[in-house]
């Protein structure tokens, strides 16, 4: 009986000892796990808060010289359509397409018999009026001389003779004007070149009817084009209009001569933007003495865009283009600061910056959105 009691007591003590040992071990494992988790969190926090090492540069001022590539069109400096001033028929043609002419040269001669008849009539009236004017002037002079003797001629007769002389003189001037009018119209039968150039089109032949109205005026008789001087017309986008000035030299090439470069000077600017294209029309004078260039050619134009003043310049890698805007990252008090900027000219992997920046600011050379605003950074 005593032995049984001892065995039971021993079993109870053994069970209580096992439970105590298990609880102690479990508590030790739980404490160790919590301490491990704390260490991991602390390590991750330290890794997040560790400042990023970045390379910076000092912002400086300078000038950039860039260029703009735009298409252009060569047009004639002067290009006119020549029409007939009076009705008639082509009698002779002295030029054809491709003929080079000088100013005042006779291009064609027309004939109009009715004008010749009108000129003869005007000439006859002029001569008749000249005779009447001579007679009235002589009559007035005789009456005026006779009036010097008392009682020979009344003052009324002198006044009437003077009025007749003045009226005949006025009629004479009118006859002269009528004659000049018909004579000038007859001169328009001679069609002459208003300036030197080349005949680029001809729409009449010998015997064809010409006139200021009707079927004879459908097309110009000739198209005269000045070829020795051309206009190069280009459209400069709004963002670059401030860099283009008169007398700036531009270069261009054309498909007909791809290995040759031509030059010209900016001479005219429209001073307003095209409402549809939002660009300014610029004309460049091009000397074409050898006549290699032809009006209507399309040119690839290089317009130099020199910076007129010192501006803040940075490498392109320092600029971040994000959905929130364009910015650079300035390092101030070992912290990153996003600074919004606007871009200017670009050349040689550099770009002009405009914004709340100062010369000497430290900017991150290779910026990205991963460097958050306000995050700590260290300079390499």
List the helices and strands and how they pair.
Layout: H1 2-49, E1 52-54, E2 56-58, E3 60-62, E4 65-76, E5 79-82, E6 88-93, E7 100-101, E8 106-111, H2 113-146, H3 155-187, E9 190-192, E10 197-202, E11 209-210, E12 222-225, E13 229-237, E14 249-254, E15 257-273, E16 279-287, E17 298-306, E18 311-315, E19 320-322, E20 325-332, E21 335-340, E22 342-347, E23 350-354, E24 362-364, E25 377-379
Parallel strand pairs: 1-25
Antiparallel strand pairs: 2-24, 3-18, 4-13, 4-17, 5-12, 6-8, 6-11, 7-10, 8-9, 10-12, 13-16, 14-15, 14-17, 15-16, 18-23, 19-20, 20-21, 22-23
Top keywords for this entry?
single chain, 380 residues, alpha+beta, six-stranded antiparallel β-barrel, four-stranded antiparallel sheet, elongated, disordered N terminus
Describe it.
30% of the residues lie in helices and 38% in strands. It is α+β, with helices and mostly antiparallel strands. It is elongated. It is built from three helices and 25 strands.
Helical stretch tally: 3
The N- and C-terminal alpha carbons lie at a distance of 87 Å
- The proportion of residues forming helix, as a percent range, comes to 25-40%
- Strand fraction band? 35-45%
